[in-house]
Specification:
Blueprint: H1 2-10, H2 35-41, H3 44-53, H4 65-68, H5 72-77, H6 81-100, H7 107-136, H8 144-166, H9 183-200, H10 213-236, H11 245-265, H12 271-289, H13 309-337, E1 343-345, E2 348-350, H14 353-372, H15 375-378, H16 383-402, H17 407-427, H18 434-467, H19 473-477, H20 481-495, H21 502-524, H22 534-558, H23 568-577, H24 581-594, H25 600-607, H26 615-628
Antiparallel strand pairs: 1-2
Helix pairs in contact: 6-7, 6-8, 7-8, 9-11, 10-11, 10-12, 12-13, 13-14, 13-16, 14-17, 16-18, 17-18, 18-20, 18-21, 20-22, 21-22, 22-23, 24-26, 25-26
């Protein structure tokens, strides 16, 4: 017996380290005990008491003093989970401190110790049965009592995690059989399963009527997600001290919602379903997570994309194609409607075509941009504007060439539409890619030219007889009467076009102003007159300047905006009065810089009037002009060609 005692005392506390336990106020020091003596005296109870007496525990702020006096069973019944959990951890510490000190040599003590361990294990099971039940009922939490119960359950989980870390580094046989308990992993797994089940069981209210099964599934799950996350933010969040449980739930719901959308996107979708998916991904889902109640606790930007780019892109293309088809169909209907006689408003022909087109395009671009979040992607739609303008051009060309129905009314109404469309494209240029904008502006200029041409063609045809005397001896000697007759006829035609909206009338008169002056110059260049001496040249120059003033005054009074046209005839007249060939060369080069379309053919036709120039002079002047003339640049896309005077000579066609 003495040998045994000696053997036992030899083992006395050599493996007991100093340990700080999660719930212990100070470091645990186990005082040396003569185990052999106590065994002989049968004082097993005293051994445990001595060990317990040196362990001081803090009263946790989560545990009320009244809960400390209750037994474990009482605390469990009252849902004082934090206090109950603390009691079990205290028992765990005491039990395994005794085991570690090898008190188990007495059979009776070993049996009691095993009973204590089994009882402790059973109590832990009872505790966690209620803890997990409380966690599982997180979405039923509303009352103060329910909130407190969940908060207590979360504290147990947190403290259990701390206790797991306390046993890290110990061999399996040296620690409790339930360690590590891994409560956090179990908790997260339960939350994941709970979220999955709630999303699978999500249903729509009976009063919401949706035909498509895809729309029903997306709408029901989106609603469930929103309702649940708002519940978490309002009730559950406060039960997780020191944690952002909202973000954890958001990630779980995000995974489920994303998985559902990916399954849906894998199948071919109808256009309406495609729209629903895109609205959900790019609009509604963001609104839910960025709502006032969730924005502060959930960072939408930190979540993965609901759909990967390779799945999203085909849906975007399908949506854009659908929008383009709708626009094309609407435009076709609008053009068919234009075949009817236009209405009169305040005595002017009027059409709503431009207003309707702009509204449809604007709505489509706005919807696409809101849905796709990108101007670049939505700009694809603008190609339909270009296609519409081509069709509009063909439509008006057909009207003007075949005199169908009421061409005057249709074309006058169209002039106002053309002006509105051009203003829209120039004002909203950020909506249009540069190449689309450029093509549309050119098409609009061409369409307007068709309309203007229809009216000016009739006028110029009627004026043809009045132009005939220009550039002849009769004109030179008429003292301005030839021009007066011409302008009287022009004035009559201007009166016929007063039933145009004022801005459209000004544009038509500006066009007519340029056409009348171009026809005037072209007629003088027809080589019907040779000015053989200085007197005739001075006389012709004066006639040109006088006629120019009369033409200019008439059109500016009527509403033309081309004031710069007044400089053309005086500059041409100056060429007739110059004698030095080098001065003529310089004047021609200067003229070509102001009017890049002024060509070598124009030079030859105009200088033909000066009979006193020799063939060699004409040849030298022509060569110098060709050598120093700068190439013409098309700047129509920078400025409306209607108001460009620099392109004047492109309308003066000479042989």
């Amino acid at each position: 017996m003495k040998d045994k005692a000696s053997s036992c005392s030899k083992y006395k506390f050599k493996k007991i380290p100093k340990i700080t336990f999660p719930f212990v106020k100070k470091t645990l020091h186990v005082q040396p005990i003569d185990i052999q003596e106590n065994i002989q005296q049968g004082n097993q109870h005293d051994i445990q008491t001595n060990i317990q007496s040196d362990i001081q525990f803090d009263i946790q702020p989560d545990i009320k003093s009244a809960e400390i006096s209750l037994t474990f069973k009482q605390n469990l019944k009252e849902q004082h989970f934090a206090a109950a959990g603390k009691q079990l951890i205290n028992r765990e510490e005491r039990l395994f401190s005794v085991k570690e000190n090898r008190v188990g040599f007495n059979r009776k003590l070993v049996e009691e110790e095993e009973d204590d361990e089994e009882n402790l294990k059973k109590d832990f099971e009872d505790l966690f049965e209620q803890v997990w039940s409380t966690v599982d009922n997180s979405f039923q939490v509303q009352t103060e009592a329910e909130i407190e119960a969940l908060r207590q359950a979360v504290i147990v989980i947190q403290k259990e995690e701390e206790q797991d870390r306390r046993w890290e580094g110990y061999l399996e046989k040296e620690r409790p059989q339930w360690r590590p308990r891994c409560c956090r992993d179990l908790h997260d797994s339960r939350l994941q399963n709970m979220v999955k089940q709630r999303m699978e069981e999500a249903k729509l209210d009976s009063d919401i009527n949706l035909k498509s099964s895809v729309q029903k599934e997306i709408t029901s799950k989106a609603k469930q997600l929103k309702v649940d996350l708002l519940h978490v933010a309002k009730y559950v969040k406060q039960c997780y001290p020191g944690e952002n449980v909202c973000r954890q739930y958001a990630k779980l719901y995000h995974q489920e919602f994303s998985g559902m959308l990916r399954e849906i996107a894998d199948y071919g979708l109808a256009d309406e379903d495609c729209l629903q998916v895109l609205q959900c991904v790019n609009i509604f889902y963001q609104r839910i997570l960025n709502g006032e109640e969730l924005a502060g606790v959930i960072k939408y930007e930190q979540l993965e994309a609901l759909l990967p780019e390779n799945m999203l892109e085909p849906l975007v293309e399908q949506f854009l194609t659908h929008i383009e088809t709708e626009l094309r169909t609407c435009f076709e209907k609008m053009l068919r409607r234009e075949e009817a006689d236009p209405e009169l408003r305040d005595g002017c022909y009027f059409s709503t075509l431009a207003i309707d087109v702009i509204q449809f395009v604007n709505n489509a671009l706005k919807s696409a941009h809101e849905l796709l979040g990108s101007h670049t992607k939505s700009q694809k739609i603008t190609s339909q504007m270009k296609d519409f303008l081509r069709n509009y051009q063909d439509f008006l060309k057909k009207i003007s060439e075949y005199n169908q129905k009421n061409p005057d009314g249709v074309l006058k109404a169209s002039l106002h539409c053309i002006r509105q469309l051009r203003e829209y494209i120039m004002k909203e240029e950020e909506l249009f890619p540069e190449h689309i904008k450029s093509d549309c502006v050119c098409l609009i200029a061409s369409i307007r030219e068709i309309c203007h041409g229809y009216f000016t063609k009739t006028i110029l045809k009627d004026l043809k007889g009045k132009y005939a005397p220009l550039g002849t001896q009769e004109w030179l000697n008429s003292d301005g009467n030839v021009c007066k007759e011409l302008l009287e006829c022009v004035k009559t035609h201007i009166q016929k076009h007063m039933n145009l909206e004022i801005s459209c009338r000004e544009e038509l008169l500006s066009h007519l102003h340029k056409e009348v002056l171009a026809e005037y110059v072209k007629t003088v260049m027809k080589k019907k007159l040779r000015l053989r001496n200085e007197k005739e040249q001075q006389q012709a120059a004066k006639a040109l300047c006088d006629n120019n003033q009369e033409i200019h005054n008439l059109f500016m009074a009527a509403g033309s905006n081309l004031d710069d046209l007044k400089d053309i005839l005086p500059k041409l007249a100056e060429l007739l009065t110059l004698k030095d060939p080098h001065c003529i060369e310089l004047q021609l080069i200067t003229l070509s810089r102001s009017y890049p379309d002024f060509s070598k053919a124009h030079v030859c036709a105009w200088l033909y009037l000066k009979a006193d120039l020799s063939s060699q002079d004409l040849k030298n002047i022509s060569k110098a002009f060709s050598d120093f003339r700068e190439p013409s640049e098309n700047n129509y896309q920078i400025q409306d060609p209607l108001y460009l005077c620099s392109n004047f000579f492109s309308k003066v066609l000479v042989k």
